[in-house]
Design brief:
By secondary structure, this protein is of the alpha+beta class. 25% of the residues lie in helices and 10% in strands. It is built from five helices and six strands, in the order βααββββααβα. It has helices at 40-48, 52-59, 93-97, 107-114, 130-138, and strands spanning 14-15, 60-63, 66-69, 80-81, 84-85, 127-128. Strands 1-6 form a two-stranded antiparallel ribbon. Strands 2-3 form a two-stranded antiparallel sheet. Strands 4-5 form a two-stranded antiparallel sheet.
Length: 156
């Protein structure tokens, strides 16, 4: 995001509509991990009818103090099925806020790293205002401010 008092490069908004391609759910260079925020493992476990401990053993691993979702040998999130999220209703904040992560809102990163892997970034996409983008971006560390207006494909 831009320093206080200055307009960011995306001040007029950004266009994005998830196409459901699943590319953001697969390894793409340095984009290869889904971090779980506090409480997300318990929420997903309950959705799946598992204890939190069973969910963690089966679907997550720990790295540098973080809990991450496992990926398949093919390089996809364990919950990706036919380009659709198997836990869409309870997906992690990281997934619900893509592509509007703070680190992605650098113009060079957006154009050179994110747009090439995300076909939803296109002139035909929904126009998100600066305010919407920044609200979604702030929610990457939790669920504050997220609602049905957060980016994403409609649930199956």
């Amino acid at each position: 995001m831009a320093p206080p008092g200055t307009k960011p490069w995306y001040a007029r908004g950004l266009r994005f509509t998830c196409t459901g391609c699943g590319k953001c759910c697969t390894r793409n260079g340095k984009y290869e991990a889904v971090y779980l925020a506090r409480g997300e493992a318990r929420r997903i476990a309950a959705h799946l009818g598992l204890s939190a401990a069973a969910f963690r053993r089966r679907y997550t691993y720990r790295e540098n103090g973080f809990t991450l979702l496992r990926f398949t040998e093919e390089g996809a999130c364990v919950f990706l099925r036919d380009s659709l999220c198997g836990i869409y209703d309870v997906r992690p904040a990281q997934c619900r806020t893509f592509p509007f992560w703070p680190e992605n809102l650098d113009r060079k990163v957006w154009k050179e790293e994110i747009a090439p892997i995300c076909e939803g970034i296109s002139p035909e996409g929904r126009l998100y205002s600066r305010e919407e983008i920044e609200r979604i971006s702030r929610a990457t560390d939790g669920e504050e401010g997220l609602d049905e207006e957060a980016p994403g494909v409609a649930p199956p």
